[in-house]
Specification:
about 25% strand, about 300 residues, alpha+beta
Length: about 300
């Protein structure tokens, strides 16, 4: 709750991995699943539009009426220029390989979902047009990403430059890297005032618009930001040994309210915003709200367990 208070005040927060571990353990993660979480990149496949990236994604629902987080059915994904995302594939409907049980049934991953829901629930933010802010449901699109730099191609976690993610809250969690030169400002995240030019490269940003910078370096280092109030950009993945491949593995959690169903197609995701559960890859875990965490007996009683 101290972290949540800081997030509400500062509109972004960076939590060191060493601080995330006890939080996730208290939220149900097991030590063995924390270890396994560092290796989920083994089954990533090519990205639909970026040659230097390997990816999977999945959609989840934070349902505060049922106090649960559940897996949603497969849907394509899209971001538009209107959402401050300016890239060659802006507005393009993209189809990613789906996240499998090895990730979604991992208790450390589930604890990360619960952590994000607790941090964001009830936080008042600048609102995006055509989203339903009266809903008690949120959609969380999860990306498991590996960015790759080789002697022939530069891996850029944010090829689009300065941007927002078209959501209300963005959370990024570091899983690991190989041959990445953290001492050379590799994969540094810069957060900007909303006046910064969308699409500007991190080398073109104006210092007067720079709010802060962070670098994910250790397992579970986590950044959470109010996406409607912070533009951001990243520097490329730079290798220690330029003759070898360098990699950076992340979990990215995009969370927003549902798209309003107006029937006019005004929001790019209106037709791809289903809240039906996934029939082939079901997953649902308990959630709880800030301010409703009591003693062990009271919390357990609310779920009918000992």
């Amino acid at each position: 709750m101290k972290l949540r208070s800081k997030y509400i005040t500062n509109r972004s927060i960076f939590v060191e991995g060493s601080d995330m571990v006890p939080i996730l353990l208290d939220l149900g993660a097991t030590p063995s699943d924390l270890d396994r979480l560092q290796h989920v990149y083994n089954n990533l496949y090519s990205d639909p539009t970026l040659p230097f990236r390997r990816s999977r994604n999945g959609r989840f629902c934070f349902d505060f009426s049922t106090s649960s987080v559940r897996r949603l059915e497969f849907q394509p994904f899209a971001l538009s220029v209107e959402e401050d995302f300016k890239r060659h594939d802006s507005g393009q409907i993209r189809i990613f390989d789906e996240v499998q049980d090895e990730l979604q049934l991992n208790t450390a991953f589930q604890a990360l979902l619960v952590f994000k829901g607790m941090m964001c629930h009830g936080v008042t933010t600048a609102q995006r047009p055509r989203l339903d802010y009266s809903s008690d449901k949120w959609v969380c699109t999860l990306f498991n990403l590996r960015t790759v730099t080789t002697p022939h191609i530069l891996g850029e976690p944010a090829l689009e430059g300065v941007h927002t993610d078209g959501v209300d809250h963005t959370m990024t969690t570091y899983l690991g890297s190989d041959n990445m030169d953290v001492e050379a400002n590799s994969a540094v995240t810069y957060m900007h005032d909303m006046n910064e030019v969308t699409g500007a490269k991190y080398t073109e940003i104006k210092l007067q618009n720079l709010r802060s910078r962070v670098q994910h370096r250790h397992f579970l280092d986590t950044l959470l930001l109010v996406d409607t109030e912070n533009k951001h950009s990243l520097s490329p993945v730079l290798p220690v040994d330029e003759t070898k491949e360098a990699t950076r593995d992340m979990l990215i959690f995009f969370t927003r309210r549902p798209v309003l169903k107006t029937g006019d197609g005004g929001h790019i995701s209106e037709s791809i915003d289903s809240f039906r559960p996934h029939s082939e890859l079901p997953m649902e875990v308990p959630h709880f709200l800030p301010g409703k965490i009591f003693g062990k007996g009271e919390y357990a009683a609310s779920w009918g367990v000992e």
